[in-house]
Amino acid sequence: MEASILNKVFAEEKISKYDGLLAHFYDLDHQWRDYKKQTYLIKSLFVSQGLKQKIKILELCCGSGTHTFFLSQAGFEVLGVDSSFEMIRQARLKKEKEKVFPLFKQRDIFSLQDDSSFHHHFDCALLLGWTLSIQSLYERFTKILELARFVLKENGFFVFDITLNKGFNPSSSQPLIYETQDGMRGTLQIRSKENKVRRTMDFEYQWKINKGDGKSEQFFSVNEALAIVERDDVLLKISSFKDQFEILHELSGYSLNFLYKKGDKNLVMVLRKALSSDVLSETA
Are both 12 and 38 inside the same structural domain? Predict the structure, then answer.
């Protein structure tokens, strides 16, 4: 792909990594995710705690809603929230084809604390799919913990995963080619470079899209920085909430049996909201 074509970006489409036309390729580009294992982890968590009542789950940054659908099929009552209009539209299109009916809202997750209907409403909040590894979100991790405390009931769980150090997918040496069911074809080339000053891996996603309608190809260049994180960084951020959350599980995989070991590149954490956390936060 020639560098010169990277300037041919349609501004109205370039809202986020997967918005506008690119949202149609979100699921195809995330086939590597093991949604079944992640769903099983959530089911196992509630079984291990002896909780069988109707469980309400809030999925933060839900994207096209695949986690949301798997969790709904598992019997949970799920609400997926994402800031992208196009991703929520894709999720609702899926909903028309499924036999389960989760809810979706287009909202900035940080605006939820302004909505009293979310206060102490959920048994579990999720941020999966390595979403927290995105630098702009990881920088606001303490705000995310505050949000989780706000939306969770007493003893509610906050479950998230994050890649450690440089445990990201490497740049693609060959372009990735995806075809949608409605005939669109997308070619993706990924380039990355470590930014030692910011402690990020900076990725450039170069897309070439053919809508299959005989019109000329469209080109997009989208940048994203992923945080280079150590486990101790995560624990330090959580430590400021030690009176509000306890670390229930620290895992390396999507099973309660996969305990974290030094050197693992994937970290899955289950935090449980303390009974007295709201009283403590209000009196601090």
Answer: no
